[in-house]
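User: Could you write out the 3D structure of this protein bound to flavin-adenine dinucleotide? I've included everything you need below.
Assistant: Certainly. Input first, then the structure.
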Amino acid sequence: MNKFDYLKPTSVDEAISLFGKQTEAAKYIAGGTDVMVKIKDGKIKPGCLISLRHLQGLDHLTYEDGELRIGAMVTHRMLELSPVIRKEFPILTDAVENIGSVQVRNVATIGGNIVNAVPSADGAIPLITLGAEIRIRGPEGERAMPLEDLFVGPGETVLRPGEILSEFVIPRLPSRTGGAYCKHTRRAAMELPLLGVAVMVSLEDDMLTCTRARIGLGVLAPTPMRARNAEATMEGQALNDQTLKKAGEAAAAECKARDTIRCAAWYRRDMVKVLVPRMAKVAIQRASK
Ligand SMILES: Cc1cc2nc3c(=O)[nH]c(=O)nc-3n(C[C@H](O)[C@H](O)[C@H](O)COP(=O)(O)OP(=O)(O)OC[C@H]3O[C@@H](n4cnc5c(N)ncnc54)[C@H](O)[C@@H]3O)c2cc1C
């Protein structure tokens, strides 16, 4: 393992300033569950790690007037144990309660999961499906964007050097909305998904007609993606078996599944056809509550 300095700023401004002053490659570290693995594997060799752990104001979880705000340093375990998330945003609980182990979830943050930007990041799929916006602070000030626009490719984001992802803002959901996420793996624990599928539906007061559909797919493209063609097949329709089957087929057709050492593309596409209707049914049940 290479030697590095380890700095512990206490404010976001100090962290950004320290980043700018480093002569050797600097890297932010949150929970370290991705960064340290990469350092040990020799994939990255930072001269300096700047810890985000002691920064004030990045670990909030607030729910006001239907709007949810999650600080980037909130851990998966905090999300998993939050009664508000479990009640109002169970699609997020579905995702975080199956990340790694309790030990990993105790330190790993939602911000790190997103900035690491792997197509298998469990946190990313429900968040793009929820329409999350992100807030970013950096040397040039603050900016915001839809989370979906953050990702460029595997491990790549539009973050500029020194920028810190500070929070996620999830807008108020329409009434009669439900959502569900499923991580499809070969075994039940400590596995990255072979694919991840999230579905959200909003219903008319007949509790059958879909007014809005959102489908998020993971490991089915170089970046987390929305299946917009599939969403269009659901909107305005009665959500019966036939409509859901069509949505699954449309999502399988528009995803960009690849063959990898872990799974064949045809299997991933077939499972999209199964999991989109399955998650839609859970979402409908949750919307009905
Ligand atoms: C045993 C094990 C099992 C795992 N299982 C899963 C799993 O099931 N599903 C899954 O999705 N992931 C899994 N992971 C991956 C990892 O735990 C998650 O991606 C985690 O959320 C990363 O968060 P972190 O706080 O540890 O990030 P770190 O490792 O600290 O950082 C990750 C990257 O994000 C950057 N970064 C972190 N926070 C910020 C910020 N606020 N602003 C700007 N840059 C930032 C860092 O510089 C680094 O590039 C697993 C990891 C391990 C070791």
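Residues 61-170 form a domain with the Uridine Diphospho-n-acetylenolpyruvylglucosamine Reductase; domain 3 fold (CATH 3.30.465.10).
User: Perfect, thank you.
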